[in-house]
Write a structure and sequence with these properties.
The protein has 12 helices and 12 strands. By secondary structure, it is an alpha/beta fold. It has 2 domains: 190 residues, Isopropylmalate Dehydrogenase; 134 residues, Isopropylmalate Dehydrogenase, CATH 3.40.718. It has a 10-stranded mixed β-sheet, sandwiched between helices. Helix 1 runs parallel beside helix 12 and helix 6 packs across helix 7. Bound molecules: 3-isopropylmalic acid and magnesium ion.
């Protein structure tokens, strides 16, 4: 029996988690069991912490984790001691050792016109951001006094080495091009990152490696996105660049992600978008990034490439036939989008 831990979280989270469970149930039938756990702001309200031991243990015991989104204005505070929903997300990534965050960006031709960029710029774009997820400034020591604050950014060579290998392997299976993004003209962590990535490159002679400074990468993602294949970068840069890259697809409501650790650890699959508190409860959230995350769960989490492809094709076909939720400039509701995709699964 395959077990999938489901963390609906906050805001639109429950509205998109339920249909994703429905879709996975449709594809996997009785071979799968879902266990739902409270997480994020909902968990703060119920238990005073964003990630309880019970939720963590449930995720550890599962074959894969499907997460929707966390956060919202209710828990937004500048008080350094107050619990935050995001701590749940960072905590689960760290506890499960999910150091490799894979964010594919593949604009669908049917949506070219939904992008803020001209179709001729987006055309042919098919890239993957490989973001280091458990190190760097997100996890360094934090200090705060009345008049100053600091966040430490540190990386070990082992942390850089293992994420670089994930990226080289992926680039080797794709077009063989890897852009390593850093800020080596300023940051010591970046200079060591660059050195380690070049050492790892010796093991992957077939992959063409290019160093790109993060500010320049931000620019090129807009000016010539189709020139990228695999981008590997540290935690903070990857967070920012993946949101930027998401917009190439027309909406951040389209982007899935996989967070993977060492073999044997359950992977965590979640859309790149957040909990969208402004539209929560209205039944208009776009469930497609969640569906595409479920597809990544099938392929990378459970080794079910056939079912993954079926789900991705259903999403593509629905879009090609005109399915548009509000974020894509249309008026389809979440329920209509779900019915549309479900109806194409067989
Ligand atoms: C993401 C999110 C998170 C991150 C936040 C919610 C902590 O923006 O998954 O990209 O920055 O990692
Ligand atoms: Mg982000």
């Amino acid at each position: 029996m395959t077990t999938i831990a489901v963390l609906p979280g906050d805001g639109i989270g429950p509205e998109i988690a339920a249909p994703a469970v429905q879709v996975l149930g449709e594809l996997l039938g009785s071979q799968v069991e879902f266990t739902e756990f409270v997480f994020g702001g909902a968990s703060i309200d119920a238990h005073g912490t964003a990630l309880t031991d019970e939720t963590l243990a449930g995720c550890r015991a599962a074959d894969a984790v499907l997460l929707a989104a966390v956060g919202g204005p209710k828990w937004d505070t500048t008080d350094p001691n107050a619990p935050r929903p995001e701590q749940g997300l960072l905590g689960i990534r760290k506890e499960l050792g999910l150091f490799a965050n894979i964010r594919p960006v593949r604009p669908i031709p049917a949506l070219y016109s939904a992008s803020a960029l001209k179709p001729e710029i987006i055309e042919g774009t098919n890239l993957v951001v490989v973001r280091e997820l458990t190190g760097g400034i997100y996890f360094g020591e934090k200090t705060r006094t009345a008049t100053s604050a600091s966040d430490l950014c540190s990386y070990t060579t082992d942390e850089v080495d293992r994420i670089a290998r994930v990226a080289f392997e992926l680039a080797g299976r794709r077009s063989g091009k890897l852009a390593s993004v850093d800020k080596a003209n300023v940051l010591e962590t970046s200079r060591q990152w660059r050195q380690v990535v070049h050492e790892v490159a010796a093991d992957y002679p077939a992959v063409e490696l290019e160093d790109v400074l993060v500010d320049n990468c931000a620019m090129q993602l807009i000016s010539r996105p189709s020139s990228f294949d695999v981008i590997v970068t540290e935690n903070l840069f990857g967070d920012i660049l993946s949101d930027e890259a998401a917009m190439l697809t027309g909406s951040i409501g389209m982007l899935p992600s996989a967070s993977l650790g060492t073999p044997g650890t359950p992977g965590l699959f979640e859309p790149v978008h957040g909990s969208a508190p402004d539209i929560a409860g209205q039944g208009i959230a776009n469930p497609l990034a969640m569906f595409l995350s479920a597809a990544m769960l099938l392929r990378d989490g459970l080794g079910r490439p056939v079912e993954a492809a079926a789900l991705e094709s259903a999403v593509d076909a629905a879009l090609a036939d005109g399915l548009r939720t509000a974020d894509l400039g249309g008026s389809a509701t979440t329920a209509e989008a779900v019915t549309d995709v479900l109806g194409r699964l067989h």
